[in-house]
Amino acid sequence: ESSRNPASAALRQFRRAARSRKLLWQPQQRIDSTPHPQEIALASPARVILYGGQAGGDKSDFAVGYPLREHHATTIFRRQGIQLPDLIRRAKAITEGFRSGFNGQTNLLTLPGGAFLEFAGLNEPDDWMKWKGRRRDCWVFDEATEFLRSQVFSLFGWLGSSIQGQRLRAILTFNPPTTPEGEWINELLAPWMHLL
Q: Does pTM top 0.70 for this prediction?
């Protein structure tokens, strides 16, 4: 009887698509036996992932690859919309041949089963307000120290999903802050600074 239930059929289709998405992107691995930071972040049970490091440390690759693999509704932010093309190109490269579709007008990449990645800029301090009420199971702030603290923390309130069991996560990738506006990230890191 469940095979005749449209909701059950849609759920089965979603689960099949989610399983196949896990093949899209794999975290990088090191030659030695130590885990790569992408592997550590992927395995973390934390709801908020702080992924920092030096330039060229594969943070943006994680910011795009992880949600493609694990999430249904994701928005990836850069502070300036003009900074999005490299992230979009990476997402297209990862999903090439996977029956995905990209709408350049809305910067929306859709995947089988209804999953999507949306790319947006928060150019102005109050641009986060355009996202009020839009629930996502994953918010990504690439180069988080370029955002205002208020932009990031305001959007945390709309982290949610209607899909039972869907993990909720916010990912903040960053390099060390270069301006006073980005030093708010140090508040988030403070509880672990004594471990270094």
A: yes
